[in-house]
Design a protein that fits this description.
Elements lengths: L2 H15 L4 H13 L6 H9 L1 H22 L8 H57 L1
Helix pairs in contact: 2-4, 3-4
Length: about 140
């Protein structure tokens, strides 16, 4: 057996032994990088041999380190920021109250106009019926 044939045989055996695909363990890599989950033996063997999965683990670990560093940072708000936010909220509340008041009045005006129109129509009908009776009588 030549050295090339032996290398091919080793590669074929590695494929048979390593049926795990990158897509199959993609979600498990994130949990394993965080320490929340452990990879199975075949998954660990795959990661040891697969540069793509190794790079994913490195990226997850970098991301976790960056997130942990952000967790320890305390950001102080700018002076007066809270007062500005409260003033803006108060102004928005006042504008909403004025709009509500105006729309409430608009409804009242429309209701009054409808009532006046109905009263006028009723008066016209009464007037027309009286004038018709007087014409018939006379």
């Amino acid at each position: 057996m030549t050295s090339r044939e032996r290398a091919d045989l080793r590669r074929n055996r590695a494929r048979e032994v390593d049926p795990v695909r990158c897509e199959d363990i993609a979600e498990d890599l994130a949990a394993a990088a965080d320490g929340n989950a452990l990879l199975g033996r075949s998954q660990r063997r795959h990661v040891e041999r697969c540069l793509r999965c190794q790079a994913e683990v490195v990226q997850y670990r970098r991301l976790l380190r960056a997130m942990r560093s952000l967790r320890t940072e305390v950001l102080e708000p700018a002076p007066g920021l809270l007062a500005d936010i409260l003033a803006n909220l108060e102004g928005a509340g006042e504008r909403h109250a004025v709009r509500s008041l105006l729309s409430g009045r608009r409804v009242a005006y429309l209701g009054g106009l409808a009532a006046a129109t109905a009263a006028g129509a009723a008066g016209a009908i009464v007037f027309a019926s009286r004038s018709r009776r007087t014409r018939l009588a006379g």
